[in-house]
Design brief:
Strand content: 35-45%
Radius of gyration: 11 Å
Number of helices: 0
Distance between the termini: 16 Å
Largest sheet: 5 strands, mixed
Strand order of the largest sheet: 4-1-3-2-5
Shape: globular
Helix content: under 10%
Structural class: mainly beta
Length: 68
Amino acid sequence: RWIAVSRDLEPLGFTMGTKVLITNADTLDSVWTIQDRMNKRFTKRIDFLVNVGTMGKWTNVKLELNEN
């Protein structure tokens, strides 16, 4: 399970290879690994790598660095 993060989140510890606990994203709630960076025009965003047909926009998604 991979995500991409906007570059403004990197100084907060959300860097390549980091495992992140995602909550408040319905069926996508779980631990994801950061494997990509988004274009610099995006801020305060994450992008889920999912199968075709799984689309949506969520608000109030919570990110937490996973200690495990």
